[in-house]
Amino acid sequence: MMGHSHALSGVVGWMAVVPLVQGRQFLGLDFNLGPGEIIAGSLVCAGAALLPDVDHKSATVTKTYGKVTEVLSDILSFLFGGHRMGTHSFFFAVLMGVIVQLLALWSELAVQIFVFLLIGIALQGLGFGLDKNRVASGIINALATAAITLALFSAGTNYTWLGLAVAFGVVLHFFGDMITKMGVPIFWPFWKKRIGQNMGFKTDGPVEKKVMTPLLTVGVIVGSIYLFDWPALLPEY
Question: Which PANTHER family does the record cross-reference, listed alphabetically (predicted)?
């Protein structure tokens, strides 16, 4: 799927699991998710759902931070065997989740930096910016990302679940690509067969544009209505 579809799937995916994990313990983590955690988790998952495509030089995530992510793309593409190979595997999802979770345990500053980076990727994937003016788009993205990250920090958002959210977002990317014709080798490096190859719809084709993207957009709207107590959140006059 295209970047915007992957980003939307990350938002919908997080919103879908919130009611399932709310108030529960999972892998030693307590999930008491308020509005800040729901918003942060949705954006983190949206950004993480774009990470596997860092192996492609034209992907949204590769272009988000200019030369930094472009160089990273070249390195990861080489290490993981090219586009839709190692970065589209459960190995990569676990690797990213573990790295981010260790960062969360190590340093609060590292957490905020990583959240900032993922939110920036998410906003870019969701189409927040000006496609015809990369400079203006980058400035808008950076300002919006900084504002959201600071607002979440000021609200005392708890990020103990960050590693799991990143791994979950990466896995959501796999399922999105598995329903396209190219498929994904989710069991790489042990088994390189592409699951779903030649069985789904064409990437950026009519099914994705006219069915998948509208359905995911509706999912975001429904999730927002269901998860947030709007009367309590909106100011009274």
Answer: INNER MEMBRANE PROTEIN YBCI-RELATED (PTHR35531)
